[in-house]
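Pasting as-is:
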Amino acid sequence: MVLQRLWVKKTMVRKFRLAVFISGTGRTLKNLIDRIRAGQLSAEIVVVVSSVANVVGLQYAEGESIPIEIVERSSFDSFSEFSDANFSICRAARADYVVLAGYLRRLEIPKDFENRVLNIHPSLIPSFCGKGYYGNIVHSKALEYGVKVSGCTVHFVDQEYDTGPIILQKAVEVYEGDTPDSLNDRVFAAECQAYPEAIELLAQGRVSVKGRVVKIAPPKDQKRGDSDIDF
């Protein structure tokens, strides 16, 4: 199996270009915008694509004058045509990576975007994931099962739900008396750290994939195991 060093322009002086896909409130989009504005994320959002028209999350893109595209599944005869339309937008915007941010549609990942589409899931994959597992459904199932630790997972997107290589995970303790809402709040706080951290690692060219195993290289001037990205 060949070790794949992920796609980063070696002479890149511009910021990492992101296409962010949403379907609802846009709170993950807002977090990314806030991190970029604070200088904590070496990226720019070049387009926001929504699978639903008039969702609340679009206001964050509008507030930053980010181009918006609406691509609804009902407008296309086939799944492939729907996917092609989405990635055509990303190519036109010259996006380095696609960031799914509460996006609730499955996509057919074309070859040129293999390991260039990211998602964050509100559990420690492979637990409580797959088709139908999103939002508070995930937290309800975790509490019903009685887990003591939950968390979030940033992963590459492949052709199935939540099965792509894992980039990083953050654990969140489950408390007695937790409800899906209270657990959701703490997991989302972890997501707000994990997603920018994963994107920053990609922007630094430190992520490689072998099979389904992701490896994170330390900075050239730092030993492995030391913490270097502060979120």
